[in-house]
Design brief:
Layout (H helix, E strand, L loop, with lengths): L9 H7 L4 H4 L26 H14 L3 E5 L2 H9 L7 E5 L4 H13 L3 E5 L4 H4 L8 E5 L11 H11 L4 E5 L4 H4 L9 E5 L13 E5 L2 H14 L5 H11 L2 H19 L5 E6 L13 E6 L7 H7 L4 E2 L9 E3 L11 H7 L5 E5 L5 H15 L9 E4 L2
Parallel strand pairs: 2-3, 2-4, 4-5, 5-6, 8-13, 10-11
Antiparallel strand pairs: 1-7, 6-7, 8-9, 9-12, 11-12
The structure holds pyridoxal-5'-phosphate (PLP).
Length: 390
């Protein structure tokens, strides 16, 4: 028998009214700002997945040339998801040069899960020779924060997997980005990154990405994201996906600017050292965006005064923006570490981080040069020393 449709109140009709999406035919995907999907939708619940996060992840997997990308709320939640694969009593091995919050997270987790935590200097063969036989997870950044040291992914992944076939190698690829370095192709099991940096590129959205070619790991990580609620929300995923469209263009500009600024910094008398990563053309294809330099001791430069004298560089720990930033790792990215930890890492108060935006390289050089001039009391004394990792 045919049911005669009830006449609903206008308020109920207003609640149910939807514009016909099929007729709108937008050129870009709109924001699916909804938590729930109907039962016949391929989506289920936004805490599990959403068209905006899926579009971002699929586009990213094309750039990274990998099976699965999982988007998360921040870079730190991407790292936390990879750490959720550890079990009580496991042996976590990390590199000594590492982002301050990551080190603090590893240390906390080590206490909670009774992990054995070993810190090695993986930038030297001597450190790589000390990888323990019972390693469960190896975690490192390359290039590192700070000092932009490059760590050989393939050599370490081979060594770790030889010692324990089930061990996981996790690479934090935030600074190279998947455009210039694809850790999974060199044997890493998981590549994580802070998408807040170069993928966003505009300092207006936070996010993280976890990539893997291993289907079982992908399922475990996606399930943990679902259960823990660490998925990127639709609006942030939409913003991130929008930024991803200009990501390769912006990176190419960063490469050119960074090279020019690196060459310039070596000519400055008050600059004692400048760091730039070793681009081998195999693991690391290109590099751009962030440089470190150290003031010469004799120049006795106060970082705060220097930073305030710059016109184009905003102060702060953010990076990979359209406008440039200056930061002091001592009081910024590594502020949460003890003085002893910072000294072990070689972080002094003279160390400065520059993140270049999309300004012209000439303007950035002029801005820095006029600030350096204020402090260069005795130009004949200090000589710059070129540091390029080999
Ligand atoms: C190398 C590295 N990994 C991870 C993170 C954390 O990323 P997020 O701030 O998006 O959580 C940072 C932040 O600076 C970083 O430098």
């Amino acid at each position: 028998m045919k049911k005669s449709p009830p006449v609903f109140t206008q308020e109920t009709q207003a609640l149910h009214y939807r514009v016909d999406n099929a007729m709108t035919d937008p050129v870009t995907t709109p924001i699916y700002q909804n938590s729930a999907f109907s039962a016949d939708s391929p989506y289920f619940y936004t805490r599990k997945s959403n068209p905006n996060s899926v579009e971002l992840e699929t586009a990213m997997s094309l750039i990274e040339n990998c099976e699965t990308v999982i988007s998360t709320t921040t870079g730190m939640s991407a790292i936390t998801l990879s750490l959720s694969l550890l079990n009580v009593g496991d042996h976590l091995v990390i590199n000594k040069d590492i982002y301050g919050c990551s080190l603090n997270l590893f240390r906390r987790l080590a206490v909670q899960l009774h992990l054995q935590l070993t810190i090695l200097d993986l930038s030297h063969q001597q450190g790589r020779d000390q990888i323990p036989d019972d390693v469960s997870m190896m975690f490192f950044e390359t290039p590192t924060n700070p000092f932009l040291k490059t760590i050989p992914i393939k050599e370490i992944a081979d060594s770790v997997h030889r010692k324990n076939a089930n061990a996981l190698v996790v690479v934090d690829n935030s600074w190279a980005t998947p455009l210039f370095q694809k850790p999974l192709q060199f044997g890493a099991d998981i590549s994580v990154m802070s998408a807040t940096k170069f993928i966003s590129g505009h300092s207006d959205v936070m996010g993280g990405l976890v990539s893997t070619d291993n289907k079982q790991l992908a399922k475990k990580i996606a399930d943990t994201r679902f259960y823990s609620g660490a998925i990127l929300d639709p609006h942030s995923a939409w913003l991130m996906r929008r930024s991803l469209q200009t990501f390769p263009l912006r990176m190419r500009e960063h490469v050119t600017t960074t090279r020019r600024l690196y060459e310039y910094l070596q000519t400055e008398a008050v600059v004692a050292k400048t760091w730039f990563p070793h681009i081998d053309g195999t693991q690391l294809q290109q590099y751009g965006g962030i440089l470190f330099f150290e003031f010469s001791e004799s120049a006795k430069i106060n970082y705060k005064e220097f930073a305030e004298s710059l016109q184009l560089f905003a102060t702060g720990t953010a990076m990979a923006c359209v406008t440039s930033m200056v930061a002091q790792p001592w009081s910024g990215s590594h502020a949460s570490l003890s003085e002893k930890d910072k000294e072990t890492m070689g972080i002094s108060k003279n160390l400065v981080r520059l993140c270049f935006g999309l300004e012209s390289a000439v303007d950035l050089i002029n801005d820095l040069a006029s600030s350096f001039k204020l402090f260069n009391k005795n130009p004949a004394e200090a000589k710059p020393e070129l540091i390029q990792q080999v």
